[in-house]
Structure formats: C-alpha cells, structure tokens
Design brief:
Layout (H helix, E strand, L loop, with lengths): L1 H81 L7 H8 L7 H29 L4 H29 L4 H23 L4 H26 L8 H35 L2 H14 L6 H16 L3 H28 L1 H5 L1
Length: 342
C-alpha cells in the first residue's frame, strides 16, 4: 500500500503541476482571443463612424463658414473642458475593476448617475453665468446649455460603455455607436437642408446621445446584469477609489481642449473656426486610440492577476497593432492636407 501510495504521489504530483500551466495558458489564450474579437468589433464600429464623420466633419465648417463654426467650436471646447469636472474617473475604474467583479456595479451605478447629473447642472449654471459676465453673445450661451446636457449624457454613456466592455458584451455597443453616428449625420444633413445653423448641430448631437443612452442602458441591464439601487457607502467608496484616475483624466482633457477656449478670448471667431476645422481632421489619426482603453485595460486587468509577464506581452502586441494602423492614417492626412482643407 505504501509503494502504491508512493507511486500514486509520484504520478499525481507532476501531472497536477503540468496541468496548471496548461490551464493557465489556455485561459490566457481564451482571454486574448475574446479581446481580439471585441477589439475587432469596436474597431469596425469606429471605422464605420469614421467614414460617416469624415464627410460630416468636413461639411460642417464648410456649410457654416469660419465665423459660425468658430462660435460652435468654442462652445464645444468650453463645455468639454469645464464638464470634465463630472467625469469622476469612473470609466478607468470600471474597466480596471469590473472585469473580475462586475456584479458590484449595481451598488454604485445609480449613485454616480445622480451625482453626475447634479454636478453637471451646477457646472452648467456656473459656466453660463461666467460667460454672460464675460460678454459672450446669447447664441454662445444657448449652445453651452445644449452641449452641457450632451456632456452629461456622454459621461453617463461612457460608464455604460465601460461596463459593457468589462464584461465583454461589446457587440450591441458597437451597433449603438454606429446607429448614434448615423442619427447624428442624418440629422445634421437634414438640419442644413432645412436652413438650420449652429444650433441645429448642437441639437442633433443631443439627439444622438439620447439614442446612445437608451440603447446602452438596455444593454447594460440585459448583458451585464446591471440593477439600480442607491447605496451611498458604495458610491462614496468608488469615488475615493477612482480619484487618482479622475485627476489624470482632468489634466488630460483640460490640456487637450483649453487652447480653443483661450483663443476665443484672444482672437477672432474666424481664426478659431479654421483652427477647429484643422483639429477635426487631424483628430482622425487617433481613430483607434479608444480601443486601447476599451479592450486593453479590461484584458490586462484579468491577465495581470495571473502573470505580470503576460500582461506586458499583451501591452506590447497591442501598441504594435495600434501604431501600425495610426501612423499610416496620420501620414495620409498630412500628405492630403491641402486637398482636404480646400
């Protein structure tokens, strides 16, 4: 019996040791394969929206003219800058933590939606008062009010999207993004055909975000099992955990868009319009950059729990792929800049 037990131990021990890395390897490969599929779906949706956006983004400044587009671009940049206060850093937190414990989202989601809405309305009131005191025209104030609501919905939609990406339910989100972009493009074309101006562009942006909000809310409930309950303690805990991400997001967004706001007070709306038009086109080179956060962060969160080396390998491969696509796009836009601007 002793020999049999020894033989059993000698056979079983190495077998178990051999199975563990094999199982871990299979789990890693399954995670990577699923993330590649998710990335492909989201990438294709971005390409589809890019194709629509390229035409419309060129058409908007051409139709409105530099001065009117400068007014719109200032209002858009200003709201993007000041409403970053309501971002709370939640998207990064959700993509990092929810892949391994998605059920916890129900404990803080309702609280963060309520907080973002309240903060957004307070920011909107303060922004409009400050702009009125600075002598900005009524049209700018109206645009800021509309685009402020767009920002609130966009931030909430960002959290819905981050949750869906965390659980790997990106198919419906990709369709929602494309559908919202089609609504946006069709609405702008119809608005211009009916004689609409700057305000029609802002209203169509609001309509597109409402479509995304409804669609993503349904998907989050059916695909991610999200339920809404107000848990103050859980909400506060998540806000504290998200604070480092919030500071990073705050700095990045203020740095990215504050230049347009400064220019609007120091130069003419015509110059702001030309600058904004160039930014719109140049921004196409960053088309696939959202995939890094949407797919890579949830994947690295799962893989990082098993192996730091595997996580670093995922990062290297992902950066290779993103640069291989982004660099040719940037070069194409640079070479064709004179044709596109005309």
């Amino acid at each position: 019996m002793g020999a049999h037990g020894a033989r059993g131990r000698r056979v079983t021990g190495p077998a178990v040791a051999a199975e563990r890395p094999t199982d871990g390897r299979r789990e890693f490969e399954a995670d990577v394969a699923k993330s590649v599929r998710d990335g492909a779906q989201l990438g294709l949706s971005l390409l589809a929206t890019w194709a629509v956006a390229l035409v419309v983004r060129v058409m908007i400044p051409r139709h409105l003219g530099p001065a009117a587009f400068g007014t719109f671009d200032f209002a858009d940049a200003f709201t993007t800058t000041v409403f970053v206060i309501g971002s709370l850093g939640l998207e990064t937190y959700i993509r990092k933590e929810m892949p391994t414990r998605a059920s916890l989202a129900s404990s803080f989601f309702a609280g963060t939606i309520a907080l973002r809405t309240i903060v957004g309305l307070l920011v909107m009131g303060g922004a409009i008062a400050a702009l009125r005191a600075a002598g900005q025209p009524v049209e700018v104030l109206r645009l800021v009010a509309i685009l402020g609501v767009v920002q609130i919905l966009s931030q909430i939609n960002g959290s819905y999207g981050a949750l869906l990406q965390s659980v790997g339910a990106v198919g419906g989100q990709s369709v929602a993004n494309v559908a919202a972009k089609i609504v946006w493009a069709a609405g702008i074309i119809i608005g211009f055909a009916l004689g609409g101006g700057v305000r029609s562009v802002a209203l169509v942006m609001l309509l597109a975000e409402v479509v995304r909000f409804v669609w993503l809310a349904v998907l989050a409930r059916t695909r991610a099992g999200l339920r809404y309950r107000l848990d103050v303690a859980a909400t506060v805990g998540v806000l504290f955990a998200s604070f480092p991400y919030y500071l990073t997001h705050l700095a990045q967004n203020v740095y990215t868009r504050i230049d347009v706001s400064i220019m609007a007070f120091l130069t003419t709306k015509v110059e702001v319009g030309w600058y904004g038009a160039a930014q719109n086109i140049a921004g196409m080179s960053l088309l696939l950059s959202p995939v890094i956060g949407w797919v890579l962060l949830p994947l690295s969160s799962r893989v990082g729990e098993r192996s730091r080396e595997e996580m670093l390998r995922v990062f290297r491969r992902a950066m290779d792929a993103v640069l291989a696509i982004a660099v040719p796009i940037a070069l194409t836009l640079g070479v064709g800049a004179s044709l596109i601007i005309r």
